[in-house]
Predict the structure.
Amino acid sequence: MSGDPEPRYVLRRVTASEWVINDRRYDTDDPRHVVACVYEADGGVEVVRLRDLPLEARYANASEVLEAVARAKDPSRATRPIVIPSHPPLFAS
């Protein structure tokens, strides 16, 4: 087996000052393929979310946006299940 698998999300430059973040899980003709659009603005970049993600409106650069998308969708971020007691509650008398 060789190295890491291909990343799910990729940053693709569209113009000199615009990028899109694509989700490789979906075909290019699927609307879910484009996750966010990133535009240069005033010494940083602004983000237009096309999917429900907890992203900020501005970042320092496009790579930071890609990292934020990957972190937001990383399944390892899930919390441990809440333990439910195995005995019934006590009744008040």
About this structure: The chain has a mean pLDDT of 86.
